[in-house]
Design goal:
Elements (H helix, E strand, L loop, with lengths): L2 H19 L1 E7 L5 E8 L2 E8 L4 E6 L6 E6 L29 E5 L6 E7 L8 E5 L7 E3 L3 H4 L5 E2 L2 E2 L2 H5 L2 H4 L9 H9 L17 E4 L4 E5 L2
Parallel strand pairs: 1-13
Antiparallel strand pairs: 1-4, 2-3, 2-5, 5-6, 6-7, 7-12, 8-9, 8-13, 10-11
Pfam families: Thaumatin
Keywords: Cytoplasmic vesicle, Disulfide bond, Signal, Taste-modifying protein
Protein name: Thaumatin-like protein
Length: 225
Amino acid sequence: MAPSTNAALCFFLFLLPLSINAATFQIVNSCSNTVWAAWATTGPQTGGGNQLNPGQSWTVNINAGSTGGRIWARTGCSSDGRNCQTGDCGMLQCQGYGRAPNTLAEFSLNQNNNLDFFDISNVAGYNVGIDFSPTTGGCRGIRCSANIVGECPAQLRAPGGCNDPCTVFGTQQYCCNNGPCDPTDFSRFFKARCPDAYSYPQDDRTSTVVFTCPGGTNYRVTFCP
């Protein structure tokens, strides 16, 4: 075998584990209106976005080892995907997180013991329901789909969504920036409607809100399931 062929084979074998562990996310819009889907990770700092009309889907491949991942729907956007009522990141192809209120599908891939960690969060409020389900790997999915916008407490109401209390009030009681904090009436409002989702920043102290799958699992995120 020629040296160049050997080098190419070694390079392929080096990349093979990475390709096996990369995750494919199918993002589906089951809402009756157009949404602008977005995703972003902090490690590495990257992301993307796409307009999804009702019934459309979008497939995103996210590198193994990515951390700080979020997928969310933006609503009430201008035709170019900017100036959204909810989840706005300032551009169609998001390169960072969106602005509250927005329901979040969160993930970090191939972490401790090569496990993926994933959750749904209302810590940044709520705009549309989300189902976050593995399509491989044999592990359970999670869902947050309730009439949160319609039942939103008056202090948290926002155009197109329901804000989180930290965004509205900015205090330690709700933001938990300086040490431990406890559930509040506002966090209990979210928890009662979506028990499997984060309801405030330190929710994982008192309930199971982070779920795991083997590294290399693929996922489907459905808006308005």
